[in-house]
Amino acid sequence: QVQFVESGGGLVQAGGSLRLSCAAPGRIFSGNAMGWYRQAPGKQRELVARINISGDTNYVDSVKGRFTISRDNAKNTVYLQMNSLKPEDTAVYYCNTRPIPITSYWGQGTQVTVSS
C-alpha cells in the first residue's frame, strides 16, 4: 500500500529544533500542494503548514516565525524545519496533500515530543 513516509521526529527540550522529512510518491507529489499536519493527544488533526507547487507557503499562527516548510521536487520530499519548539508542539506529525488530504495515503506519522 502506498503511503507518505514521515521521519525525523524525536524528543527535544523546549527551545530546541527538529527537521522532519516526508517522502511522497512522485505522481502525487509533483502535481499537488503539500501540507504538514499534526495531531496531539485528545485533539483533532490540524494543518500547521502548507506549500504549493511554486513554493508559496502558509502557516498556522501558532507556528509562524518558528517553522519553515520546504519541498525538493527532484526528491519528491517535503520538509518541516521546526525551531524554538514548545511543549504545545508535542504531537504526531503527518504530511499529505492540500487542500484535500488523500485519505488512503496517511502514513504512520512521526512523533515529536517537546519537554519543558
Quick recap of the structure?
The chain is mainly beta and 116 residues long.
Describe this structure in words.
- The chain is mostly beta strands and 116 residues long.
- The protein has one helix at residues 26-29, and strands at 5-7, 10-13, 18-23, 33-39, 46-51, 57-59, 67-72, 77-82, 91-98, 110-115.
- A 6-stranded mixed β-sheet has the order 2-10-9-4-5-6, with no helix packed on it. Strands 1-3-8-7 form a 4-stranded antiparallel β-sheet, with no helix packed on it.
- β5 and β6 (57-59) form a beta hairpin.
- The longest helix has 4 residues, at 26-29.
- The mean pLDDT is 95.
Question: What key phrases describe this protein's structure?
Answer:
single chain; 116 residues; mainly beta; six-stranded mixed sheet; 3% helix; globular
Order of strands side by side in the largest beta sheet? 2-10-9-4-5-6
Low-pLDDT ranges: none
- The H/E string reads EEEHEEEEEEE
Rg, rounded, reads: 13 Å
Strand content: over 45%
| Structure class | mainly beta
How far apart the termini lie comes to 38 Å
- Main β-sheet: number of strands, strand sense, barrel status? 6 strands, mixed
Report the count of strand segments: 10
Number of helices in the DSSP assignment: 1
Percent range of helical residues: under 10%
Instruction: Compute the average pLDDT.
Output: 95
**Tell me, what's the shape?**
globular
